[in-house]
Amino acid sequence: MMNLIVLGRNGQPAKLLTVRPTHLALVVLIVLGLMSLAMAGGYMLARSVGVSGVSEQAAVAEDAAVWQKRYHQLEQAYEDARRQSQAQLDALTLRLGQLQARMARMEAVGERITESAGLDPKEFDFGEPPGVGGPEATGSLPQVTGDVHSLLNDIDALESTLSRREDQLELMDHVLASATLDHEQFVAGRPIHKGWLSSKYGYRIDPFTGKRAWHAGVDFAGKEGSGIVASAGGVVTWAGERYGYGLMVEINHGNGLSTRYAHAKALLVKKGDVVSKGQRIALMGSTGRSTGPHVHYEVWKNGRPINPHQFVYRAAR
Question: Which segments does the entry list as coiled coil (predicted)?
Answer without folding.
Answer: 64-109
